[in-house]
Design brief:
Low-confidence stretches: none
CATH architecture of the largest domain: 2-Layer Sandwich
Radius of gyration: 27 Å
Strand content: 15-25%
Largest sheet: 8 strands, mixed
CATH class of the largest domain: Alpha Beta
Structural class: alpha+beta
Keywords: Aminoacyl-tRNA synthetase, ATP-binding, Cytoplasm, Ligase, Nucleotide-binding, Protein biosynthesis
Subunit structure: Homodimer.
Shape: elongated
Subcellular location: Cytoplasm
Bound molecules: histidyl-adenosine monophosphate
Catalytic activity: tRNA(His) + L-histidine + ATP = L-histidyl-tRNA(His) + AMP + diphosphate + H(+)
Strand order of the largest sheet: 1-5-6-11-10-9-7-8
Main location: cytoplasm
CATH superfamily of the largest domain: Bira Bifunctional Protein, Domain 2
Number of helices: 16
Length: 420
């Protein structure tokens, strides 16, 4: 047992698996950039009240899972449990919403939730998210969902699906909420569930207990009580998704863990992951900006879980990311050769080739083993006799095929062999 271990519930990624982590994160970021989203880097902690107000006091995230502490100045701060509230705060603070709309931003990084750790559920989780603020256009909702779908596909994932629903708007939700509450009051629910029904009736719909599910079979659903405008909005989102070739299923009982959602709401699910099947989720949050003291502007976005998506790749047997540490592994035999190859490595790296060297005077056998382990395509071997003839041996590790490259045009020779 080592003296120090990582904090409980926090995944770490190191080579070679970390290549997959980077590849997932990059696939998400790249998909966002390709749709015109600009990068925003935000604080890892914020005023506690931002999350209390933005995410909702009655959510598990705020009431049970926040890492909240007083800093040395006595201010209550919280490690960010999610990204949307922070983005809104920054957009308002810096007046990003005073220019052209929508404001399209993406972010990538760690979030913190004090959850009960288990496979796929961590206390430090990684997300890539996008937020599009200021235009309430159903086509934008479809864009956001399609970006995520495309990113999963690019990684080679096929076992994901997206569930969709509408949570209504300010005109239809209050009436629906009252109707649902009235229905729930008529059921023989236990005390805790009754309390939840009074505080946040929608969340009761998510109850997983079979006996409660049975009682809820005839519960009124938001999608059947949408205002004309919200219904039309929802229909348009679906039509755009069909045009974009995004296959979705409707789940009118979907309950999200954050309170700010309105209208379009969605979740990406992967069935190979057991209980923690949500690999990404998001939706519209039209009242959030005003709630946080900004303009009355709409917004839509998603947060994609990098950790869980990497697990999904593993479940599907996909190798994502370049597991190789380098393209070329230099094997010097003797001091003069070493001097020459250290210099050559510098030149090759400057030319964009990934290069490592057998340091520490390894023998040929040990060095070739290290070359294999590095994942390099070629070993570049330089011995005494090669020095005399002015050339090095470039050996393709997979095939054993060997070719000579002239020492005075090493960079060009290696690049040619790599096809670059
Ligand atoms: P969320 O559904 O709470 O949404 O989280 C998004 C994704 O983060 C989840 O689908 C899941 O993949 C991952 N995730 C969440 N908690 C954990 C955990 N404990 N361990 C591992 N992965 C986790 C949001 O955070 C919203 N801010 C998304 C959004 C952006 N909505 C609108 N804009």
């Amino acid at each position: 047992m080592t003296e120090f271990t990582a904090p409980k519930g926090i995944p770490e990624y190191y080579p070679p698996e970390s290549a997959g982590f980077l590849a997932v994160r990059e696939a998400f970021s790249d998909a966002a950039r390709r749709a015109g989203y600009g990068y925003i880097e935000l604080p890892l902690f914020e005023d506690t009240s931002l999350f209390a107000r933005g995410v909702g006091e009655s959510t598990d995230v705020v009431s049970k899972e926040m890492y909240t502490f007083a800093d040395r100045g006595g201010r209550s701060v919280t490690l960010r449990p999610e990204g949307t509230a922070g983005v809104m705060r920054s957009v308002i603070e810096h007046g990003l919403d005073r220019g052209q709309l929508p404001v399209k931003l993406y972010y990538s990084g760690a979030f913190f939730r004090y959850e009960r750790p288990q496979a796929g559920r961590y206390r430090q989780l990684q997300q890539v998210g996008v937020e599009a603020i200021g235009v309430d256009d159903p086509a934008l909702d479809a864009e956001v969902i399609a970006i995520a779908d495309e990113a999963y596909r690019r990684l080679g994932i096929t076992g994901h699906r997206v569930e969709l629903t509408s949570l209504g708007d300010a005109t239809c939700r209050p009436a629906y909420r009252a109707k649902l509450q009235e229905f729930l009051r008529g059921l023989p629910l236990d005390e805790e569930t009754q309390k939840r029904a009074e505080l946040n009736p929608l969340r009761v719909l998510d109850d997983k207990r079979p006996e409660v599910r049975e009682l809820l079979a005839d519960a009124p659903l938001m999608v059947d009580h949408l205002s004309a405008e919200a219904k039309d909005h929802y229909e348009q989102v679906k039509a755009h998704l069909i045009d974009l070739g995004v296959r979705f299923s409707e789940n009118p009982r979907m309950v999200r863990g954050l309170d700010y959602y309105t209208k379009t709401t969605f979740e990406f699910v992967h069935d190979g992951l057991g209980a923690q099947s949500g690999i990404g989720g998001g939706g519209r949050y039209d009242g959030l900006m005003a709630e946080l003291g900004g303009q009355e502007l709409s917004g839509i976005g998603f947060g994609l879980g990098v950790d869980r998506t990497l697990l999904a790749c593993q479940v599907e047997g996909l190798t994502v990311g370049d597991q190789a540490r380098c393209d070329v592994y230099c094997v010097p035999m003797g001091e003069t050769a070493k001097r020459k190859l250290v210099e050559a490595a510098g030149g090759l790296r400057a030319a964009g080739v990934r290069v490592d060297i057998a340091y520490g005077g390894k023998g040929l056998k040990g060095a070739m083993k290290a070359a294999d382990r590095s994942g390099a395509r070629f070993a570049l071997v330089l011995g005494e006799r090669d020095l005399e003839s002015g050339s090095a041996q470039l050996k393709e590790l997979a095939t054993g095929e060997q070719r000579e490259v002239a020492l005075d045009s090493l960079v060009a020779g290696v690049r040619e062999a790599l096809g670059r």
